Amino acid sequence: MCxxxxxxxxxxxxxxxxxxxxxxxxxxxxExxxxxxQAHRLRPPRGAGSSLEPEERSxxxxxxxxxxxxxxxxxxxxxxxxxxxxxxxxxxFGYVGIEAVLDQMKIKTMKTxxxxxxxxxxxxxxGKSTMVNTLFKxxxxxxxxxxxxxxxxxxxxQLQSITHVIEExxxxxKLTVTDTPGFGDQxxxxxxxxxxxxxxxxxxxxxxxxxxLITRKRKIPDTRxxxxxxxxxxxxxxxxxxxxxxxxxxxxIVNVVPVIAKADTLTLEERAEFKQRIQENLKTHAISVYPxxxxxxxxxxxxxxxxxxxxxxxxxxGADQEHQVNGKRVLGRKTKWGIIEVENPAxxxxxxxxxxxxxxxxxxxxxxxxxxxxESYRVRRLNESNQLGLSPLNGLPGKGEASSHL
Amino acid sequence: xxxxMRYKSKLVNPDEKQDHEKQYVxxxxxxxxxxxxxxxxxxxxxxxxxxxxxxGKSTLVNSLFLTDLYKDRKLLNAEERISQxxxxIKHTVDIEExxxxxKLTIVDTPGFGDAxxxxxCWKPITDYIDQQFEQYFRDESGLNRKNIQDxxxxxCLYFIxxxxxxxxxxxxxxxxxxxxxxxxxxxxAKADCLIPSExxxxxxxxxxxxxxxxxxxxxxxxxxxxEDEEFKQQDRELKESAPFAVIGSNTxxxxxxxRVRGRLYPWGIVEVENQAHCxxxxxxxxxxxxxxxDLKDVTCDVHYENYRAQCIQQMTSKxxxxxRIESPIPILPLPTPDTETEKLIKxxxxxxxxxxEMLQKMQQQMQDQ
Lengths: 406, 369
Fold this sequence. Notes:
The structure holds two protein chains of two kinds.
Chain A: H1 67-76, H2 100-112, E1 114-121, H3 128-135, H4 142-145, E2 160-168, E3 171-179, H5 194-211, E4 227-232, H6 241-250, E5 256-260, H7 268-284, H8 299-311, E6 314-315, E7 322-325, E8 328-335, E9 338-341, H9 350-360, H10 362-388
Parallel strand pairs in A: 1-3, 1-4, 4-5, 5-6
Antiparallel strand pairs in A: 2-3, 7-8, 8-9
Chain B: H1 3-8, H2 17-23, H3 30-41, E1 43-50, H4 57-65, H5 78-82, E2 89-97, E3 100-108, H6 123-140, E4 155-160, H7 169-178, E5 184-188, H8 196-212, H9 229-240, E6 244-245, E7 252-255, E8 258-265, E9 268-271, H10 280-290, H11 292-322, H12 339-368
Parallel strand pairs in B: 1-3, 1-4, 4-5, 5-6
Antiparallel strand pairs in B: 2-3, 7-8, 8-9
Helix pairs in contact in B: 10-11
């Protein structure tokens, strides 16, 4: 669901004939991945004098050190849309049918289907697998694919990805859940986040390699992690040093959504206090979790996201058993003192998490991963390869002479 | 069932009083005398609580003793915690109930298991326990032994997180480091996040792992064969529900028109003192009403003696190495032992140890019977 016809958000329509306007990213040079771009500029292919081959479109904007060249070029010919005066409004005196483009897009995307990659991180026993099953209302977690295996804490952090294709009302989604058993379970948990960071960067690398091939696939398989759900244990006090370390490092490279796991152990007052302390903690350490404030595009978005930000982290309870409550069958946990209904907003905030991840912000997660996190990874890699004077991306199999110009 | 009552039931009934009075010596009142003396003297009890932060240790301690020991506590935030090592904090409170005084000391261990790297985070705790033993050892060997302060830790409540699938590596290491120094009573904390089937599974899992790793937690003593059925039944239930799944609460809420201690949730009220909800009552009974004295006895007879034996052995081997007489306890009269006598001493030590082991085994056998 591209947000319609706005000039800026064309990153998604890669299915079209390999020409997708992408501008250089002014203001991107740090790891912050700032979405400072106001608009994409349509750039004509560069002339001779650069190492670009004439066939190659300007898919690969030059690395940041060549920014001066960019500026000169701008003065020459390209007229950035953002600098031009706003489009002149015309009155339509009949029905043209522009809005039908939305239907076309819908049909097209339904045919191609969606991909969504989610990662769940947290200590063992916090209900990650149950939560994933509850979110997608099907048995997609690691435990469901390996039934009967006993729970053992592995000695090192392992990463296991399971892919399922789920379908609802004709819309297919290829869902990949990456689980991280062993995180935070050892006595010495230093650097237990390294395997996770490595995995995320590997996915970006894989995508990058596919992207810079000469003959690219029509639809590059997207294994990048779109969202990382981090489970915080419900201690009720503060974030632990381990939580802070992890979130600090990972919020720079992936969208981190923190949730309070097993929240049925906190009363409502304890829950509110805990959330407030966590929000303070995050602010003090300048950790920006999803939805990030920097990427709100317009006041509407900002209002919506502000409401969400007030409630972060969501206090969730997961359940995979159904019980009878008032004649209805609900998902919940039955204890001696009552039944905790997972989908009841008065009991826990699971519906909010579901909305965020699936119903309202799924595409946004993917967009931010693609436009911000992936781009900043790319910039880093390009910088590295330029500085070293090597082309670490060489050696790729490709038709023609040099496989890449980098 | 207090000891006084148990003995009263054996007293004669008035009909046969005449006959029995001739055979009645009267030392059956000894327990009453002991009772009176100890009431005057008062009791003391040192309890240590250990576990990761946020598991409800302070709340549970407050619920157990119905006091508010942690009134002015400030919760440390993560920055302050990062640079911290495990501390040992003692709170002492004097409680009195029906004329019986109890000097209760709670030893708290904030910071345990909180850091990213928790290697040897139990070391400050083992050091503290050893220090108390050492102090008692010195006091006991001193000249004036009238008022020895007993600061030895009588019991350690270890809080296991209910969010895991059993024991975590840090739990196992902690308990293995401490099981020969103090009575460990493992508890499952914050048990209100578990449904009954999960509690059962978790308890089984923990019991299995405790056996697997050879951790010697505090064993409830066998009850005598002449106790009545009710007591035996209670004892059996107690043993079967270890480790206890507890919930603590400081607040009183309304439930079914009654005011109970509990936690109020949108889906119901958890009553702390309801046996169907959690094992808090069992823990409280065990700790205070029935087994407090046994805990103290085991600390004195087993853990302290182990420490003492180790200590003395170290000293003797040190002496034989250094050829110096320096110990504060005049045990060895040998000024300059030569190799032969050294060997003899070592052999005798071995024999002693073997005999002690055999004695213990025989005692156990007798108890089993």
